[in-house]
Structures are given as C-alpha cells and as structure tokens.
Amino acid sequence: MTQIKRQQTVEEIQFAFKVTPVCGLIGPRQCGKTTTAKEIANQYPGIVHHFDLEDERDQNKMREPLLVLENLEGLIIIDEIHHAPDLFKSLRVLVDQKKNRKFLVLGSASQELLKQTSESLAGRITFVEMTPFHLKEINSAEQLHTRGGFPLSYLAESDDISVAWRKGYIKTFLERDIPSLGFQLSPQNLRRFWTMLAHYHGQIFNASEIGTSLGINYKTSQHYLDILESTFMVRRLTPWIANIKKRQVKAPKMYFTDSGLLHSLLGINNHDDLLGHPKLGASWEGFAMEQIIRTTKADKESCFYWSTQSGDELDLIILENGKMNGFEFKYSSKPSLTKSLHFALEDLMPASMTIIVPGDEEYLIHEKVRVCGLTKFCLG
C-alpha cells in the first residue's frame, strides 16, 4: 500500500520542539500519528526511544516511569499516552531536570479531554492536532469525499475493502477505544446515538429531540455528543451572534469530521450511492468545510456559523487577524447569489465571501462574492 508522508504535520512537530520540550500529537485513532512519529524519529539526529502503551510490556515499564526514563537522552516517543494519564506528572519532573531530551507523546483524545492530567505540563507542552488526509496530501477529491481521509480507508484497493475497514473501525472505536478512555457506557447506546447523529449532520443540534427519539434524557444526549467531539469524531460549530435587530439562532450545529464515517453510518458504500442520496448536499457541506478549515489552519475558537430565525444563514465564518471571512458550500456547478447571502453581506459585512463548489474554477458572481472550486481553494 502507498504511504503518504504527512509533511505539514512533521513540520508542525519540529516547530513545536523549538517552543517546548514536549509535543503532544493528538488526533483520532488510525489517522497516521504513529507513522508520522516514525518519520520524526528517522529525521532526528540523536538517539530515539519508543514506548507503546498498548503493549503490555511497555505498560509494565511505565508503572515506574521515573526509573525507566530519567537516564534516557534524545527523543523519547510515548504512543497512546491516554492509557496512562498519570504519566504527565512524571514528565514534568523529567522535563525540569533540564537534560538533553525531547518527548513526543501521542494520544487519541482531545486536549480538552487530557486537560486535567496535562495541566502539570503547562508551559512545557505544545499540542499538535493531526487529522485524517486532506486535499493537500492526496490526488482525488472525489475519493476523499466518498471514503473519508483515514489512510487505510482512502488507500484501500476497492470500495468494498474501504467500507469493511470503516465498519471495523466503528466497532473497535465503540467497544475498545471508548472504554480505554475511561467512559463507562453501553456501546450499543452510543452506536444508536452516533447513527442518529448522522441524519442530523449539518443541522442544529437539539439534545432533547435526539434524546426523546432514543429514549434517553437531555443530559445523556449532551454527554454522548461531548464524547464524540472529544475523540475527534464530530465538530460542534458555534453560532456567531451579530449586533443586529434580527432574532438569531443560538444553538450549535453538528458535523462529522470524516465524511467516510458519515457515509458508513448512512449506508453509503460508493460514489454512485452518494450521488443518489438525499444527504449529498449536507455531506458535501461538511466535507468541504473540513477542508477549508484545515487549509486555513483555523482553530475551532475562530470558526462559527450564522443563522437567523427568519432563515438567513451563512455556513461558515472564519475570523482571521480581526477580519471575518464568510463561506457558503454548494454542490452545484452554477451556484446563485441567494437572498440569504445578500442579507449576510448586509448584516455581517465580511471582509470576503466565497461560495465553495466542486472542481477548480474561480470567478466573481458579485463584486463582493467569488465562486471557487474546493480543489482550487485548497491547492491554489
């Protein structure tokens, strides 16, 4: 199978080590963190030590981390660190010894989920978030949209193999990964919630409505969403509240971060299935949104959507250097300037407004609005 180097992530890690002695590489399981760590190790000029906390032998060693690590120098890689959150306390002691060493720790939980245990490393750790493949790293937007960006799904020899891999991933995530992160809940209930969520992709998240459908309460529904967000499975997009007289929607929107997993839960197995599915537009919106966010390197605190009670809306707002950039996503070759976009221009006064469509064309549709193909935007 072809191996695709994640050069952007490699460079982010190398820069992180210039800032702090510890780099936390976080992202969903099987997105390529271990492979990228090996690339960092190959380029490192000194000694490299590697520990995998899914290996029982390394788990046993880390019961006394100070004894094992304090005499080591060079690059120390610790994979699946979320299996031993108490290790962060020991890392602070080791870092403060000021010896010639760097720590690269890999985990499948978000910075927020690791926050309590990583607070002891404040000022000593830089987090780098790794995602599945994006358009800058591969050569087929259609395949990336259909199969998603997990390497073993995208690079599979056939659609059938890709589908089988994603089904296995979902099963393992629910039955093994969630318990390993300390969540005690029914895999069947979380699967039902996750599947229900697929039908809400791109819509306002209503915890009470989904909870009622599944026979669970509001708090449980909210808790399940928090779990999926903290394990990088979904993106919660918060609303932008403008200083205008119109009543605005204040609840978050929810998107799957990987289109391949969304398609698996919707029963979409190939591109032809996708083209005939009623969720095609919503699928494209979420897929294109993720590519734009990754291309612009926007953090989640800078990303919003805008919507009013009367139906005016804008799919994505990214704040950058004090400026507001607006994006609308249309699976169309001839998008029009809708009344909703006119209101967005008037009410929000963004610095730029872009309608993202499939392909690589680019042209103005209005003096303040351009149409741009997703490939064109991401690859230039």
TrEMBL record:
What UniProt keywords apply to this chain's record, in alphabetical order? ATP-binding, Nucleotide-binding
Q: State the signal peptide span.
A: none
GO molecular-function terms, A-Z: ATP binding
- Which InterPro entries does this entry report, sorted A to Z? AAA+_ATPase (IPR003593), AAA_14 (IPR041682), DUF4143 (IPR025420), P-loop_NTPase (IPR027417)
Q: Which Pfam families does the entry mention? A: AAA_14, DUF4143
Domain (AAA+ ATPase) spans 19-137
Query: What superkingdom heads the lineage?
Result: Bacteria
UniProt name for this protein: ATP-binding protein
